[in-house]
Predict the 3D structure of the following.
Amino acid sequence: MQPEEVSNLKPSIAVRVRRWLVLLAVLGAIAAAAGFLVQRAGRQAEEKYRTENVGRGDIVASVTATGTLSAVTTVLVGSQVSGIISRLHADFNSPVKQGQLLAEIDPTPFQAAVEQHKADLLQKEVQMRNAEINLHRQQRLLADNLAPQADFDAAKAAYDEAVAEVRQSQAALDQAETNLRYTKIVSPIDGVVVARQFDVGQTVAASFQAPTLFTIAQDLTKMQVQADVDQSDIGRVRVGQHTKFTVDAYPDKEFRGRISQIRLNATISQNVITYPVIIQVDNPEGKLRPQMAANVAIEVARVHNVLRVPSAALRFRPPEEAATAQTGSGSASAPGQSAALRSRPPVAARTGASNGNVSVPGHSAAGRGERGTQNVYLLVGAEELKPVSIRTGISDGMYTEVLEGEIKEGDRITTGLATTKADSSSRFPGGRMF
């Protein structure tokens, strides 16, 4: 081959190489675009709904409240007299019996008062006997016409006055002896000392009211909870209803009780009106103590083996409806919605609307045991949602009773949108969040 022919072939090969490179680049771009579209379609296909089968079971509706534990009977033991505490015979947590000596007040001034009133009584009795002798003498003289009637009347008045003074002195002595007995503080009931307010050497002043020395709980094996129930719930609370509650000291243990009284004296605090409900509680193990805070659940309704749906299904809305409500157009119907969906009342979307979980009017009413009509969505096939109207009964927060509706046991009801791993990683960049 001649050198001229070789030089002519070189440009032709270079052109072909460039063409192949361009073709490969175009094919690579097409493949990348196709892969992106396939991946996107796969992600859309992976977007599934969370569902649960409609079933049967028991539902217990409850009213929640907070309360405080106390002994059924608590007695404040005080002092009737003033003085200095000389001795203490009981302390905190001391078991006591009725009539048992708890404390003593210095009896010295009271003993002196008793002796003084005894002496005064003796003096008055002597005066009364002298007046009686004089009265008898004047009576004999009057009978013999040896003394005027006026002398007899004066002797009679003096005698009556002496008798009155004796009675007055006797009453003063009785009072002094009573005060002396009051220096010994005794327990009026069987129980346990839960509080003591004074120490030896302190002065008790009982001028206007009896100061409290001890607080005695009669029987801590029987206690009560005073729960403050909101006015919106008090209408469903009845005497005899069962309750359960927990205390912070034993968070994993559930205690039970029964309502014994619903009091009428309401309490108003920051415009919130509550009524005290008394719950009787057995405390055989002695775990419960006075003044413990209790979180109470009062059972107001119970149904057995009823058709029920997850309460989350009542809050679910399809993504398009949630998005419409989130943009402020919740009252408008989205294109293509069914008549049942369009008839559903507008609802304000919650923060979790992107997951299909939003609040629905009437859910609170259903939880309160009231009747309400709501829409739920059955999953038909892979992705088709069918709105169904149901009438709800009571709810325990997790499940709600179905009273009426075109829904049966075994139907797949939608409770939300499934969250994929890709969604989770995009929501929480940088790893898992707690």
